[in-house]
Amino acid sequence: MAASGQWRGMGRLAEMAPALGRWPRFYSTSSTFAEVLRLPQKQLTRVVYPLRELAQHLVTDTGSGLIEQRLFDPSLEDIARAESVFEATARNRIEYLSSAVRLDHAPSLRQPEGHTKKMNFFKVGKYFTLVDMPGYGYRAPEDFVDMVETYLKERKNLKRTFLLVDSVVGITKLDNIAIEMCEEFALPYVMVLTKIDKSSKGYLLKQVLQIQKFVNTQTQGCFPQLFPISAVTYSGVHLLKCFIADVTGSLK
Known about the structure:
Elements: E1 2-3, H1 33-36, H2 41-48, H3 50-55, H4 76-86, E2 94-99, E3 120-124, E4 128-132, H5 144-154, E5 160-166, H6 173-184, E6 189-194, H7 201-218, E7 227-228, H8 237-247
Parallel strand pairs: 5-6, 6-7
Antiparallel strand pairs: 1-5, 2-3, 3-4
């Protein structure tokens, strides 16, 4: 996905930390931030700031600072403000704009012909447009790389690209294709770790540390802070939305 748009992905890696018990499944039963704020403090931290909760399980010499690089560490008040950006109202409409069935159908782009995989454009109020790009991997069309390369190289108002990495699997060879593309084009990008509700704390901690080490040592354009999220428990989702609102200048 990317903002103007965002980009879909997956992942793989491994090593460290025994299981510390199942990652709780019940952080929040609602995506409404007002309800999240009513949670007990420990649960609230798990939902809003998942890296903080993970860091509590690190021994001092295992590199707690590695996942505590809170470069983006907004207050609850800032996150609440960002929620209004994504709230659909009569004055702030969240609209599906179009699908680019062929890449030359994407708004304001002149692209080579022959691409058939869709990119979906969503306008978020008056603030920005999210572009949901087709996932890469074994289901991707043969011309996926060419289609995505052209878009990323020529879209001048692209604010940030988001690579979705499966936290259960880690960074895969396919993820590396996307990473290398972003690095080659000098694009600012962010790694979003999905499905964090699927693993024990110990396994998730191991994955986060290894992916963070990869970001620190193998990338130049990747934002140093990871964004772990769960679509099931909503953990990390509010923080990620706040980051998107921030990098698009929507909180000014």
